[in-house]
Records
---
Amino acid sequence: MAKPRISSIDGKLAEEFAVPSHVEEVKEKMAAFARHHVATGRRVVLITSGGTKVPLESRTVRFLDNFSSGRRGASSAEYFMDSGYAVIFLHRHRSLYPYARMFSNINMLDALKFSGGGGGGASSSNSGEVVVNQQALPNIAKALKRYQEVKEGELLLPIEFSTLSEYLHLLKAAAQALSTIGSKAMFYLAAAVSDFYIPASEMPEHKIQSSNGPLQLSLNMVPKILSPLVKDWAPQAFVISFKLETDATILLDKARRALDTYRHQAVVANVLDSRRGYVVVVTPETQAELIITEEDVKNDVEIEERIVSNLTSAHNKFITQ
Ligand code: 9Z3
C-alpha cells in the first residue's frame, strides 16, 4: 500500500529536532486566537522575532546564537496592532517585547522611588510607598495606556522559543493553525534563524571536555522551512521573509533569489549595520527603498512604521485580488 506523502522536511523535523511538549496546546491556542479575531473583522499577523539558539550538548552548557535584539519584531508588533491587526508574537525568550522594549535599558531600581520624597539615604529608605519616578521613564504613561488597551482587547498572543528546534516546530504549528483563515493571515518572519545545527543523533549528552583538545564542529544545514510553509502549510497566506547580510553588494541578489525559490510575496532586505535606517522591500514586480532621515530620528519616526505601512497596503491588495 502506498504511504501517505510526507515532505522530506516534515520527516527531518520529526527526526532531528526535538518536539516541544506543549506544541499541540500552543497550536490550538493560536487557531482559536485567529478564528476569534477574523470573526470580528481583524487580520492576523504572525511575527517571529529574536535569534535562535543551537545547542552543542543535549544537557546544554554551550550553544551558538544568531544575532537579533528583537527590536524589529517588537516595534513592528506595535505598528501592526495600531493598523488593526491581531498579533501572534513568536519570540526568543527575553528578547525585546512590545511596549516594554522602550524601557529595556533602564534599571528598574532607578525607575522607582519612595513617595515620601528624600534622596533615598538611610533615613528616608522606608518613607512612604514605592512609586514610579516619571523622570526616569519618559513616555511611560503613553506606553502603559496602549499596552493595557492591547491586553484588554486580547490583541497580542505571545509565544516564546529559545532553541532552533522550538522555533521550527512552533512556526510549523502556527502555519497550520493560521491556514484556516487563508489570505487574512500574514507571516512576518523577522527572527534571525540559524542555517546550521547538530542533529539530535550526533549531539553529545554531557558537556564537551576541553581536556580532549581543540573542538572541531561539523554542522548540518537546517531545512528550508519557508518552502513547506508557502507550499503546504499555509498556501493562501501573505508571506514576508527577511534577508540579512553584512555585505551590501550581494543583498538584493540574495533577496531576489529567495523570492524566485520560495515564491512568497515579499522579502525585506537589510544590512546589519544600517538596518534601522534603510531597508528594501522586494516583491516579484517592485522594489521599494524605505529610508529614515536624521529629521525622522529627531521626530521619533522608526523604520518599522514604514515597513508595516508598506506591507499592510500590499496585504490589502493581495486579499482583494
Ligand atoms: C532580519 O533581517 C531582521 O531585520 C534583523 C533585525 C534580525 C536584522 P533586531 O532584532 O534586528 O532589530 O536587532 N531578520 C532575518 C534574519 C535571517 O536570519 N534571515 C535569513 C537569511 O538572511 C532568512 S530567513 O538568510
---
Amino acid sequence: MTDANAILSAMTISERRLKHTLGVAEAAKEIAKTHFPALDLKQVELAALMHDFTKEYPYERQLELCAKYSIELTDEERNNPKLLHAKTAAMIASERFSLSTDICNAIYWHTTGKPAMSPFEIVIYLADYIEEFREDASCVKLREFYKKALSKELDKSIALNKTLVRSFDTTIKHLIAEEQTICKDTFEARNYYIDQLRAFNF
Ligand code: DGI
Ligand code: FE
Ligand code: FE
C-alpha cells in the first residue's frame, strides 16, 4: 500500500515545488472537509502529493512518458509543455504507486479542470490554485474570493461554484494576455460551472 512517505522519498522536485506540494495537501484536506466530508483525507493527501510529481521533468522526458503510457495528445497539448505533467504524473500514480482511479483522475485534470468534476477532482484542482504558498496576484485574489464567498454564502456549494467559475475566468484571461492557446477542457469547464450557477439561480 503506497503511503505519503513512499511518494515523498521518490519525488525529485525543488524545495519551492515541495513547499507548494505540501501546501496543496493542506488546502486539499481543508476543501474536502468543508465540501465533501465523505472523502478519505488520506487519499486526498496522496493525490495532492502526487499532483506535480513530474512537473520539473524536461519536455523530452514528458513526451517519452506520454509515448510509454500511450497518452494520446492533441497538437495543442503536445505544443504546451505545461499541460503534460498532469497526464504523466497521473500515469505514474497509477503504474508505479498503484493509486486508485479516483486519485489518478484528479491528478490528470488538475491543470485544466473539466466539466462535471468529481469531488476528488475539484478538491485537487482548487487546492492547486489557492494553497497558502501561492504568491502570484491572481492566486492570492482567488484565495481571498473563496474565503469571502464561504463566509457570505449560506450554501457552501454556491461559494465553491462561484470560485470555480472565477478560477477558469482568471486562467483564460491570463492565457489571452500571454497570447497562448486555451485548451477546450478549460473552456468547457467554465461553461459548465456557469450553467451550474444559473441553475442555483444566483
Ligand atoms: O503545476 P502548477 O504550476 O502548480 O499549476 P498548474 O498545473 O495549474 O499549471 C499552471 C500552468 O498551466 C499555467 O502556466 C497556465 C497553464 N495552463 C493552464 N491551462 C492551460 C494552460 N496553458 C495552456 N496553454 N492552455 C491551457 O488551457
Ligand atoms: Fe501542476
Ligand atoms: Fe501544482
